[in-house]
């Protein structure tokens, strides 16, 4: 959040203008140089830390809760006795790679805090009052402004959802990853929709097709008439759309072929979302040979009478588990491949994408994985997920 953006938030601007040392770091607001008395009746300085709720990229909303974190020892009264009225949790908590707090406090007004100025001011007053009693010259208002950290993430605006849920440190496991999505016809576009909301280092889009009218009915979002009239390449269309959120989306508006397979060497994870088995087999065999983890998706829908039935599947592989691939991925369309039909429907594309995303995040250490399956399929008719190819 830049200084200009702070100017757009009256509560943050008021804190800054009154002399508080404020810093915005990701989805957190830090207030430095808060004086307090320790158990030895000595004056120390700590840092208040609050989750930051934004109504837009450059303006705050009302705080989502009344609790505040603190970096420092337990504040005490003038006798060196802990201020028990605000005690909440006394434990170190890692909020992200840059912020580890030592404890949290709770002081809730009847109507809650209407803005961050009132929240910060109240906690600062409670914590610093004993220190100011012992030394009237002590103040938290130094008028020293710490430069806000900006442009350190891969997002165009701050991910306050992760900080609000205290899962920034978990999501950070994805930060170094380079992701490739091969095919953006249906499932691949939904995969992009979810990957773009993750703090991955880069996203590479591979597709040589144009974005046509039928694509609009099985893809996330709502394409405009002008979008369709421009007849853009799929990779370009989605790069433009999701670059509103993620900074590092790269366009490869061509098909993955034998001649350019080596471009995948640099990837950490690949989503294979193609509908031609020959291409699917070529790509997955190559990825397995170089040890790049991937998820290959498939969707098969058939008309039975006046209803639809079928299944969606996700076949995944890693450097340590890929011996199942010959039984799951075929080089040609055959009777053994129940996922070869070309009926695609938005909700099934979305479900297929969600299953693939969940598996990627399990492999990446985001979610618990008790099954450790590398092939899963959802059967529409019986509403069941079947997990197979479990890694020993």
Q: What can you see in these coordinates?
A:
The protein has 392 residues and is of the alpha+beta class. The chain has two domains: 3-164, no CATH class; 176-390, 3-Layer(aba) Sandwich (Rossmann fold). 27% of the residues lie in helices and 26% in strands. It contains twelve helices and 18 strands. It has helices spanning 3-7, 10-17, 116-134, 160-164, 168-171, 187-195, 213-216, 225-230, 234-242, 277-290, 325-328, 346-363, and strands spanning 21-25, 28-37, 43-51, 54-56, 59-60, 67-71, 87-89, 93-94, 100-101, 103-106, 178-182, 202-206, 249-252, 269-272, 293-304, 307-317, 373-379, 384-390. Strands 13-12-11-14-15-16-17-18 form an eight-stranded mixed sheet, with helices on both faces. Strands 1-2-3-6-10-7 form a six-stranded antiparallel sheet. The protein has a two-stranded antiparallel sheet with strand order 4-5. Strand 15 and strand 16 (307-317) form a beta hairpin. It is elongated.
């Amino acid at each position: 959040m830049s200084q200009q953006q702070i100017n757009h938030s009256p509560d943050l601007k008021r804190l800054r203008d009154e002399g508080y040392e404020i810093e915005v770091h990701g989805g957190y607001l830090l207030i430095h140089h808060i004086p307090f008395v320790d158990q030895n009746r000595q004056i120390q300085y700590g840092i208040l830390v609050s989750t930051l709720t934004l109504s837009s990229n450059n303006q705050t909303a009302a705080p989502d809760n009344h609790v505040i974190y603190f970096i420092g020892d337990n504040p005490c009264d003038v006798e060196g006795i802990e201020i028990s009225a605000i005690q909440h949790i006394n434990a170190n908590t890692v909020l992200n790679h840059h912020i580890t707090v030592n404890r949290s406090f709770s002081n809730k007004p009847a109507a809650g805090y209407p803005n961050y100025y009132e929240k910060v001011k109240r906690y600062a007053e409670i914590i610093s009052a004993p220190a100011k009693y012992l030394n009237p010259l002590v103040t938290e208002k130094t008028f020293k402004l710490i430069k806000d950290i900006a442009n350190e993430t891969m997002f165009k605006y701050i991910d306050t959802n992760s900080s609000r849920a205290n899962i920034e440190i978990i999501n950070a496991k994805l930060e170094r990853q380079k992701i490739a999505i091969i095919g953006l016809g249906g499932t691949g576009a939904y995969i992009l929709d979810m990957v773009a909301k993750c703090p991955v280092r880069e996203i590479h889009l591979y597709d040589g097709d144009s974005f046509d009218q039928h694509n609009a009915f099985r893809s996330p979002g709502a394409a405009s008439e002008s979008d369709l009239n421009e007849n853009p390449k799929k990779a370009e269309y989605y790069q433009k759309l999701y670059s509103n959120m993620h900074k590092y989306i790269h366009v490869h508006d061509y098909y993955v072929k034998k001649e350019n397979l080596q471009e995948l060497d640099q990837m950490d994870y690949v989503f294979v979302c193609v509908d031609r088995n020959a291409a699917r087999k070529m790509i997955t065999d190559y990825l397995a040979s170089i040890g790049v983890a991937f998820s290959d998706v498939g969707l098969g829908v058939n008309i039975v009478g006046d209803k639809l039935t079928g299944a969606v599947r996700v076949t995944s592989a890693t450097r340590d588990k890929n011996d199942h691939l010959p039984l799951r991925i075929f080089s040609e369309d055959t009777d053994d491949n129940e996922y070869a039909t070309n009926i695609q429907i938005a909700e099934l594309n979305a479900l297929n994408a969600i299953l693939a995303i969940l598996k990627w995040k399990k492999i990446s250490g985001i979610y618990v994985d008790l099954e450790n399956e590398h092939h899963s399929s959802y059967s529409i008719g019986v509403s069941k997920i079947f997990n197979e190819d479990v890694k020993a």
